[in-house]
Amino acid sequence: QVQLVESGGGLVQAGGSLRVSCAASGGTFSNYAMGWFRQAPGKEREFAAAIRWSSGSTYYARSVKGRFTISRDNAKNTMYLQMNSLKPEDTAVYYCAARLGVNSDDRERYQYWGQGTQVTVSS
User: What is the rounded CA–CA span in Å between residue 25 and residue 98?
Assistant: First the structure.
């Protein structure tokens, strides 16, 4: 069974940087795409970024493109989201997710989810 565990959330000032991690286990991820989603209070969970595990090809939401970078370390089975130039509107619980297949921005297409990590950006 695939398990995903996020870490690295916290409190940061606007304009600052933070990196969140997602440790993956219980599967062979070469055929998976991994994604980061986020959910702010009172809002729906929204797509942020995705990466195809085998090729490293990436896909970003317009709201984070140019500020966030998704990456993965094959040897550690860990995915990262480096977040720069953070804004208060980036405040949310950040979830990592995994799906068999290609990158997708549709949360319904992801089969596995982590428990989330809180990121708070103060103004």
Answer: 11
| Residue-by-residue DSSP string for 13-80 | ETT--EEEEEEEESS-GGGEEEEEEEE-TTS--EEEEEEETTT--EEE-TTTBTTEEEEEETTTTEEE
Report how far residue 118's alpha carbon sits from residue 86's, in angstroms, rounded to the nearest whole number. 14
Rounded Cα–Cα distance for residues 69 and 62 (Å): 12
Q: Can you read off the two tokens belonging to residue 75?
A: 């040897």
Q: What is the DSSP letter of 105?
A: S
Model confidence over 1-53: pLDDT tens digits?
A: 899 999 999 999 999 999 999 999 998 888 999 999 999 999 999 999 999 99
